[in-house]
Amino acid sequence: MKIIRRIFVILPSLFVEALLIALLVTVLKPYSAVIEGLLRVIAFLLALFVISYRQEGTYKILWILFFTAMPVAAAVCYLLWGNKKTVHSIAIRVEAARMKLKAQDWEDGGELQKLREENERLSETLDFVSALSRFTACACESVTYYPLGEQCWQAMLEAMEHATSYIYLEYFIVQDGLMWSKMTDVMARKVQEGVDVRVIYDDFGSLSTFTSKDTKKLTQMGVKWFAFNKLKFISGTLNNRSHRKMLIVDGHVAFSGGINIADEYINHIERFGHWKDIGFKITGPAVGNYVDMFAQFWNGYCEDKIPQSAFDLVPASRTTTDGIVLSYYDSPAYRDAVSNTMFIEMLGNAAKRAWFYTPYLMLGDTLMDAFVRAAARGVDVRIIMPGIPDKKMIFRLSRSFYAPLLEAGVRIFEYTPGFVHAKASLFDDDVCTVGTVNLDYRSLYLHFENNSLFVDSSIHKALEEDYLDTLSKCHEVTTDQLKKGLIHDTIDGVLRIFAPLC
Fold it and tell me: Which among 73, 75, 384, 469 is least buried, having the fewest CB atoms inside 10 angstroms?
């Protein structure tokens, strides 16, 4: 359904293209040769313009084909949605808010210096990701891993019950049901106790699930809210959704991971078999980055700003240490795609293994090459994918990437009981990530996402055990199982070219 909506928004430009063709064959027929020549020049100049930018090769090929086939429609679409300048209206708001916020320098307790002395290469990667994202790593006081969405949700409710100052929630999808009703029950009580409760949801992500009736209820409860990047029929920021997911309580605890606020994420209802999702909870100074992430978005759009006291409540020091964590968010306005770059770095650093959870698999050329090179070096590279897809067309697109990965030695597994929505990675014995980032073009290049990179933390062992348990419920895909032949290979090639649209 969402693909249909994405296609629907380009209809005006396609109408212009059709109108121009009609004019060429009727009224403007005497000048058709001149006009056709001008259009060819426009297509050529646009292609040069795209080639000159640092973008994924597949993305460039898609636009060049579009320019060649339909130069007018392609020009309109590219100017509206195809370049980074279209997201500037959002980036300007968020950046202005970021500059006014005074986030603390969270204490690392010497862990970062120790990492520099013991693993200089990993330390350089951490510093690189920190510089790209403009968020700093710090010592993690404690982290708890949840191998299922329902377990994470129960812990979220418990944390909300103990709130005394504020509750901040941001989710891509919010849908009324058991999960949301239990959370709003807590929110309503906490507002009466004087707790500041604020909710951000993505307008497109919740388009069919969260209505004016739902927001009116929040307002009546005293909960503050706003819909990120409201959907417009023609908007340059249409593709730039907030896919972020976080719950922050009092600056002391933060939750994130793959789950949205809808009942399938906690297996209360069944849509695509068993829903495999994951999440985590962190405490201590590391929560400060999540407060900063939320405040940048809120203060960029809302008059009722998040006060400095929200940061002051974050502990300046920790009582225990559970490794290092760098929590950050991706922005399509950044020159470099942070998570895409981080995954390339980590695959290049990996010596033993690189294991991934992802519901979708549509890789750009550089990340694909990083997977292939790691496997060729003998690194144990594995990807767990859904066994039952939520979107059949997207699943077919994902499978078009299987062949080159399998041929390179990457092992791919599909989760037999149902749908995998988890987004995580494991590298060697000391690094892992958990967050909202899928291995597809939209997550890596177009969406606002949030991710946490852990080093020498107990969450690595918990994630490893969960991954191995999930593998026992998967079947491994082999090259023999893939359909082969000229027609099938051609279809796969075409699908991979159009993957950036999905």
Answer: 469
Which amino acid type is present at position 135?
F
pTM here is 0.87
Q: Phi then psi for 211, rounded to 5 degrees?
A: -110, 180
pLDDT of residue 9: 47
- Look-up of token digits 């990675």: 425
Distance between CA atoms of residues 163 and 228, nearest Å: 25
88-108+141-322 topology per CATH: Endonuclease; Chain A (3.30.870)
List 254's β-bridge partners, or say none: 248, 282
Contacts of residue 281, defined as CB under 8 A and 6 or more positions apart, other chains included, come to 143, 144, 146, 152, 155, 159, 253, 254, 255
Interhelix angle 32-51/57-69, nearest 10 degrees: 170
Q: Where are the alpha helices (DSSP H) in 271-426?
A: 287-301, 309-312, 338-349, 365-376, 392-399, 402-408
- Residue pLDDT, tens place only, 385-441: 999 999 888 888 899 899 999 999 999 999 999 999 999 999 999 999 999 999 998
Domain assignments of the chain as residue spans, ordered by start:
2-82, 88-108+141-322, 338-501
pLDDT in tens, 191-201: 999 999 999 99
- C-alpha closest to that of 387 among 272, 466, 271, 484: 272
- Two tokens at 473? 């419920």
CATH number, span 338-501: 3.30.870.10
Least confident of 43-57, 138-152, 444-458: 43-57
Short-list 427, 283, 268, 435, CA closest to 358: 435
Strand partners, 86: none
